[in-house]
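Intended use. Records like the one below are meant for learning the mapping from a protein sequence to its folded structure. Do not use them to infer anything beyond what is encoded.
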Amino acid sequence: MTATLLFVLACLAGYQYRRVWVKDGPRWKLWLFGLVAAVCLALVAFIPASAIN
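Structure written out for the chain above:
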């Protein structure tokens, strides 16, 4: 369940990143959404499933 929530959060952050990027929004928002997406995907990828439960 935790991995699913992290993945959904990463997808939403990635979607927001793309919206800000296309509209030429502020760079701090690009960094914010990009880092949130990257951290969530890294957690899903590198933490063993047994540790997440």
